[in-house]
Amino acid sequence: MKGILLSNLMKCPSLLALCILLTLFGSRVFGASGQNLPEIFWEGEVRLNGKFIVPIGAKLQLAPGTRVYLQRPESSIRVKGALIAQGQIDRPIQFVAVDDSQGVIIESSGAQSLFDFVEFSGGTMAVSVSENSPSFMNSTFNGVETAIQLLKQGNVQISGNLFVDCGVGIQSELKSNPKISKNRFIKNRKAALLLISGGLAQVSDNLFEGNGKGMVVTGLFPASIRENRFIENETALLLSKGEDKTAIEDNLFERNATAVENRFFSSPDLRNNRFISNAVAILNDRFGSGLIEHNLFAGNDTAIYNNRKSHPVIRKNLFVRNSLVLYSNYSSYPRVHENSFLFNEVAVHLDVHMSADFEVQEGSEGIVAKESRSLGRQTLLQKQRDESFEDFVDLSRNWWGEDTSRFEAAGAQANFDLFF
Questions:
Q1: Full-prediction pTM beyond 0.70?
Q2: Which of these, 57, 281, 287, 372, could form a disulfide with 37 (CB 3.0-4.6 Å)?
Q3: 123 and 97 in contact (C-beta within 8 Å)?
Q4: Judging by DSSP bridges, how do beta strands 36-42 and 28-30 pair with one another?
Q5: Per DSSP, what are the bridge partners of residue 41?
Q6: Which 3 state secondary structure label does DSSP give 67?
Q7: Are 24 and 6 in contact (CB under 8 A)?
């Protein structure tokens, strides 16, 4: 049936909704419980002026080329059963929303929903998922304030989609476990991907380009971030208040203002990444530490910036033609070993607040203990405090190209043109 107008009558309870739908559409499927349950079929244009409910056990199916208009702020589709929106590459399904409409709300049920070749535009929310595991494939989210919101437990598959000009592309929280792969996140204003407190995310083979923030990982949200491309973002990857369970491997970070910002006790593992022509490749701030190993840093303004008691372990990396390799200030004492430094303008810059006297006045260990108590757990830095809080930056056992022999001959007290 084409040209359907569904008004506020659909706010009624499920029984009235079932009666109306069976009258309109008349088709039925046999449910797992042994009851006859409705299969709701839409095609053509559908205009929603209020809430539409897909009852438990029912399935709403949209034909290729269907256009759904959510015309008012209260317009929404609340899915207690299943929604199957499977378009075609030349006949996508479209959801067009006014600025404040709530979009599609998928609730906890045993049924799995599917969005394939679907285009969402406008609205506060395109799709909100709670304790369910739908799949999103080959779809476009354009100009939505939050495109996909994932709440509570669910193993959501998000693959091959385009998120463009949204406020937030994907927001995952409260023990969600999404698999996010082969998507493109382009010019999203706030964050392309936001992972908040609890869950396990697998993020691989995505493109993040021109976003305010590419990815934000905050709280105890261990994530696997592999083989992604982060290009020309303001901040490509921001980690905050995390722990040493986030693996960041085999990614490309190119021409970002800040490639990786790591702060507030986060201790990720960064391995086998390429940092090319970023203003700042890695920014560690306020006890932001972790392992930086087997990475390439080439052509960056600053490769690694350590501030306010950040103590990363930096080993077995290659630093080539960077303006500055390592900056440290405010009692930040990284351990830097077995790296290769080649053709960099300045290797190390220790700023004015790097001194034993300042360390005594500020008291790193006391601050770490206080911060740990406020978080209710022992941090990686507190576990390592006996070896972490030193009054010098350890640069032993590195390769400095043609300068290596003269550095070794001069001893630990020498200063050279590569150090400032």
A1: yes
A2: 57
A3: yes
A4: antiparallel
A5: 61
A6: strand
A7: no
Q: Sort 1 into a burial class: Cβ within 10 Å, 0-12 / 13-18 / 19+.
A: exposed
Q: Could you list the pLDDT tens digit for every one of the 420 residues in the chain?
A: 445 555 433 333 443 344 333 333 333 232 222 234 589 999 999 999 999 999 998 999 999 999 999 999 889 999 999 999 999 999 999 999 987 888 999 988 768 899 999 999 999 999 999 988 999 999 999 999 999 999 877 789 999 999 999 999 999 987 778 899 999 999 999 999 998 876 678 999 999 999 999 999 887 667 789 999 999 999 999 998 766 568 899 999 999 999 999 988 788 899 999 999 999 999 999 888 889 999 999 999 999 999 988 888 999 999 999 999 999 888 888 889 999 999 999 988 887 776 654 554 445 555 555 655 665 555 554 454 444 455 678 888 888 887 777 766 665 555 555 554
Q: Is the Cα torsion angle 172, 175, 176, 180 positive or negative in sign? A: positive
Q: Find where tokens 């008012």 sit.
A: 72
Q: How many residues does the chain have?
A: 420
Task: Rounding to the nearest 10 degrees, give the CA dihedral for residues 404, 410, 413, 418.
Answer: -40
**Interatomic CA distance for residues 223 and 177, integer angstroms:** 9
* DSSP assignments along 266-332, one per residue: ---EEES-EEES-SEEEEEESS---EEES-EEES-SEEEEEESS---EEES-EEES-SEEEEEESS-
Token pair belonging to 327: 């900056």
108 touches 84 (CB < 8 A): no
- The total of other beta-carbon atoms located within 10 Å of residue 412's CB is 8
State the Cα–Cα distance between residues 194 and 405, nearest whole angstrom.
47
For residue 402, give both structure tokens. 């043609």
Q: In sequence order, what are the beta bridge partners of 184?
A: 162, 207
Inter-residue long-range contacts of 87-92, CB under 8 Å, 24+ positions, other chains counted = 87/62, 87/116, 87/117, 87/118, 88/64, 88/117, 89/117, 89/138, 91/64, 91/65, 91/117, 92/64, 92/65, 92/117, 92/118, 92/119, 92/139, 92/140
Q: Considering only CA atoms, give the Rg of the chain.
A: 26
CA distances from 376 to 107, 262, 269, 308 (A): 33, 20, 23, 21
Report the alpha-carbon distance of residue 105 to residue 101 in Å, rounded: 11
Burial 259-270 (b: 16+ CB within 10 A, else e): bbbbbbbbbbeb
Cα atoms in the Cβ-side hemisphere of radius 13 Å centred on 303: 29
